[in-house]
Amino acid sequence: MTVDALTDVSGLRVGHATRTGDGWLTGTTVVLAPEGGAVAAVEVRGGGPGTKETDALDPRNVVRKVEAVVLTGGSAYGLDAAAGVMAWLEERGRGIRVGADPAHVVPVVPAACVFDLGRGGDFRARPDAATGRAAVEAAAASELGAQVPQGCVGAGTGAVVGVVKGGVGSASTVLGSGITVAALVVANAAGSTVDPETGVLYGELFEGRRVEYPEAEVHAAAQRRLAETAARSTPPPLNTTLAVVATDADLSKAQAQKLAGTAHDGIARAVRPVHLLNDGDTVFTLATGDRTLDAADPLALNEILAAGADMVTRAIVRAVRAAEPVDGPGGAWPSYGELYAGR
Description:
Layout: E1 13-21, E2 24-32, E3 38-44, E4 51-52, E5 65-66, E6 68-72, H1 81-91, E7 96-97, E8 105-106, E9 111-113, H2 129-141, E10 160-161, E11 164-165, E12 167-174, E13 180-187, H3 216-232, E14 242-249, H4 253-270, E15 282-291, H5 302-322, E16 326-328, E17 331-333, H6 336-339
Parallel strand pairs: 6-9, 14-15
Antiparallel strand pairs: 1-2, 2-6, 3-5, 3-15, 4-9, 7-8, 10-11, 12-13, 13-14, 16-17
Helix pairs in contact: 1-2, 4-5
């Protein structure tokens, strides 16, 4: 049975650590690979990224597999969360072996952050190593194939898309070949997911189903509400949409990097504008290698590339729809569901 989320890729687990209240509105999300790791790659297209260990994922470099990927709030400060994940992995001997002793390992933990500083009211309330450990422990404690909590959790706790509340979303599909492709997204963009002319979510226009447009009166009321709340919440200088796209296909690092690149198209379908200088848009890919591609077909990767972008788009839609409104000392951000109730 599938749950239509990243955990449909066999062996992957997702854990969130969420901090709210007393000035906090942030968190960390960890994607934990099966023991032994997964082939990993990354593509960064935003002009203001905050990342860790992304150079290690270059196909020209020695690291082939990683044990975990960290997505976190807290801007560059929040990258400290990766240290907690590294420590947890080291304690279990998971990482690159660097000595005769099996305990001598160096876990390579790629990480990327979103800007959410001060959204809970306290600029210094941001994830640290303890937050990262809590998130990876939550991932390890979850059942294989478990549903992934979405909305204002983990790295999506303080996420904002334009002037609407963002969050975490996930989606998956099984291709005709039997290969699974899935995505998990932290939607936190400078651009908007909502068409200002109609109120429909941009991403829904690409989901292959009939789109129900909001009534004109509902849309007009939503636009008035957004104008009011925008006046109360100064748009932050930095934003980022993060994604992990995963598959159970057996991919090389070069193929995984191609998947990361095309998956950015999924962001571009759902957020406008995108990949700006004040965005840090970053997509990681993980390939567990359980299913082989058709070696006789040089274009066998194409259906995985197309599905990766589709899953990112769907995950962004789900993130925005699952988000809950926030009105606190750090600002006010209505949710899409609140603005367009019943859609």
